């Protein structure tokens, strides 16, 4: 939709990868709609994943005992976080929709992307205590996980060896995105592209591009417990 | 137990933290039993979390298209992974029990520790295809998650805002540890130490130390779907 702003947080090392193709068609399709699209290409940026003292410029609040969460909160309020974090926060603030594009590593995000979550979505910026879940600060924004798996769709069924794929979505969609207030759109899961034929991969990419044509008409999904696991 | 070898993979920035205390009493108690205890203090090591081309020394198999999983597998087989990964793999190989000590970040591991999982537990070392879940290569080893939470135990009940804590354990215990063959011991969850009194924190630390006295008598838990969520 024209005028909408999209941030794609992208975590793959190889531009020619299937993840790279999914990212590219999203940039193309959303751009063709007249959206402003920004991509944070984490590996290309050599994005820092570790949550450390270095994330605070200048003096910390308590030099005797380093509590990362507290120091990041205080630094956020003073505008004293490092520029890489502040830059990402600006991109998130501007965005109507944040798409996370990544291969599933150990039922979760690759560490470089986990580090983006850990460092960018800090207290004061994304949430406060209180001010989380439905009261999270990013509640006027949409988020969407577009991920690829090594395992097949069959493995990720309730009776499969890896269990229902919705089980691994829980920490990401509820614990992180919903906690910050995001309205979460249905995930885009591209199962086992490495086991697919070239034709099948093209079809999965085309399916994503097609979905994006009507992405702004979609309703958020329900991440709230305990019904989530009742399905 | 005398003669047993334990690796503690520890991810906290502050030695005087509650996590630091849990790590310290584990070192003390297991050492007193006559175990050999090794600690990988990830922040102190500035452990690299990103899975990149730099993890392979020398030539990659496919210079035109970088596939991290495949290249790490090939490098593992040739002994061509970087020394930081090889060092960690040696520690894991020697260990009878691997304890992960960390604060929960977004229902999961801090990125620095996620990066340890991503880079150390590579194909060829921890598993192969086939050769995963019960056939994972680390099947003669025990693993245990000792984690702390920001949220309270009440929040992490099935009817609480964060859902049953076992839901967030799933990707870690089943998707990662069980996948590699580890027999998983019950997690040690210290809820909300920051909200506890000094006495309550001391009691939680003492409880962990006490548990470790009989850790070698414990039976692994069942991480297998779908019964895991039936309880």
Please name the defining characteristics of this protein.
homodimer, Rossmann fold, 231 residues, alpha/beta, 6 helices
List the helices and strands and how they pair.
Two copies of one chain form a homodimer.
Chain A: E1 5-10, H1 18-32, E2 36-41, H2 68-78, H3 83-94, E3 97-103, H4 111-120, E4 142-148, H5 165-178, E5 183-184, E6 188-190, H6 198-213
Parallel strand pairs in A: 1-2, 1-3, 3-4, 4-5, 4-6
Short description:
Chains A, B: It comes from Suricata suricatta (Meerkat). Helices cover 34% and strands 13% of the residues of chain A.
CATH architecture of chain A: 3-Layer(aba) Sandwich
**How does the overall form of chain A come out from the CA principal axes?**
globular
Kindly, what is the distance between the CA atoms of the first and last residues of chain A, rounded to a whole number of angstroms? 32 Å
Percent of sequence in beta strands of chain A: 5-15%
Detailed description of the structure:
Two copies of one chain form a homodimer. With 231 residues, the first copy, chain A, is of the alpha/beta class. The first copy, chain A, has one domain (5-229): Rossmann fold. Chain A is built from six helices and six strands. In chain A, strands 1, 2, 3, 4, 5 and 6 form a six-stranded parallel sheet that branches. The model of chain A has no long low-confidence stretch (mean pLDDT 95). Chains A and B meet through helix 4 and helix 5 of A and helix 4 and helix 5 of B. Chains A, B: This is Ribosyldihydronicotinamide dehydrogenase [quinone]. Chains A, B: Its cofactor is Zn(2+); FAD. Chains A, B: It comes from Suricata suricatta (Meerkat). Chains A, B: One of its GO terms (molecular function) is NAD(P)H dehydrogenase (quinone) activity.
